[in-house]
Amino acid sequence: MASRVGVVVFPGSNCELDVVEAVRRLGGEAELLWHGHTSLGGVDAVVLPGGFAHGDYLRPGAIARFSPVMRAVDAFAADGGPVIGICNGFQVLCEAGLLPGALQKNAGLKFLCKPVVVRVETDTTPLTGDVPVGGELHIPINHFEGNYTCEPETLADLRADDRIVFRYTDNPNGSIDDIAGICSAGRNVVGLMPHPERACHPLLGSTDGAPLLRSLLVRAGALVA
Amino acid sequence: MRFSVLVETRLRDGIADPQGATIERSLPALGFDGVSGVRVGKAFRFSVESDDEAAARAEVEDMCKRFLTNPVIEDATISVDPSGPG
Fold first, then answer.
1. Superfamily assignment of B2-15+41-81 in CATH?
2. Is some CB atom of chain A closer than 8 A to the CB atom of B77?
3. CA angle A75–A93–A123, rounded 5-degree value
């Protein structure tokens, strides 16, 4: 059976179809996974998409981490399966403890919706395996709580272990150390605020997100590198 | 016993509070001079059934740690009032 990417849908997610469309255009298979399911149905990679899971009530991601599907995502990640959290998905991964730190309100107290430039800092993650380190990508952001923060010891670990995956070249939100994305100690869980799925077609103004999702498909076994 | 509980959460010291800073900067325009240290947080009011005040407090502390706050960025202060729901 062909490799498949599962895209989790929480009540309030709103970027899931963009991810599915981008994956399909790249030649991969994608399917939606309802948050109330307790199984991932044998998918080879999981994406937690952007949006406002559970209305962002309490804090972004705070309720989503109790969704039944998150137990399966936890187990999948513990087995080394690739899990990508985009924007709200990144917030969910932090609240769920699959990634360290937290995302607080943007320093300028503005909702930011614009293209930004991020630099790829490591190629040893499922999302960046096919992308040169140091490469700069034009990808849109769309968030209010994207200002990454963590304890000083956590930041030291992230730096020492090469776990900062993307940095903004011009920090839009006050994120500590210009962080736009990080990965887990096992490197298979990646969270990022920019939306690669919104930069996968010339009509969208950039195709720089495509190599990232292509990397994920290669990692999931859906494409040959 | 029933206890009425007030939990107030706020961003930890050292964590930037852009809402608080914006409010603080706006106050002088209305003539409120000399205001400093504005921090914005949330308040949760509820009641819990518990054997005694210490047990009620312990339960609420656990609730704060695991759900009501994100300990990376937020602190909580807890008041437990044995006089019942207020």
1. Phosphoribosylformylglycinamidine synthase subunit PurS (3.30.1280.10)
2. no
3. 90
